[in-house]
Predict the structure.
Amino acid sequence: MPLETESKARVRALISEFRPENGDLLATLHKVQHEFGYLSREAMEVIGEQLDLFPAHVYGAASFYEEFRFEPPAHTNIRWCSGPACRLRNSNGIRDAMLATLGLDEIHEQTEDGRVGVINGQCNGCCELAPMVWLEQHETHTVRPVGNLTAASAIRMARALRDGTEIEGALDAAFERTPSGSGVSNG
Ligand code: FES
């Protein structure tokens, strides 16, 4: 079976409970993105077939919301908090240091090998950790808040992720602690 057809079949099975007459487009989009990490063109075609909508309608609705992605996520995404408390504590400097370390020009890019991406995040009330980021891995459904960053610790963290270290190892590198977890603490 060709890959695209197999991929479409997976989406079709995933959203088979939704029907045009009671189909909730947003719920369908969320379910597909949660499973695959993004909304592919094929997935939006299947959603359109299932809910009796044109794919352009599906894309138009999804693109209205910032939370939906149309490209595969990086292996690890650094979700950078753009909120006011973090900005007061030099989050812009941290963002620029991470982007430079990863060789990226701006937010929402990822390294060429797909290992690390930097995406925009909003304050979710963890301001005591400012400035902070979340490290996210779609594959393992991991979300790890990381707080009290400095430009230096952010650079060490980004460098470790770029070089293939997984999240906990990258945090050990960032906060210069031993792999056992002792040493400087973060969020
Ligand atoms: S402003 Fe960054 S967590 Fe609140």
Remarks:
- Strands lie at 76-81, 116-121, 133-137, 142-146.
- The radius of gyration is 19 Å.
- The pocket of FE2/S2 (inorganic) cluster is lined by residues 81, 83-86, 123, 126-127, 130, 132 (CB under 6 Å).
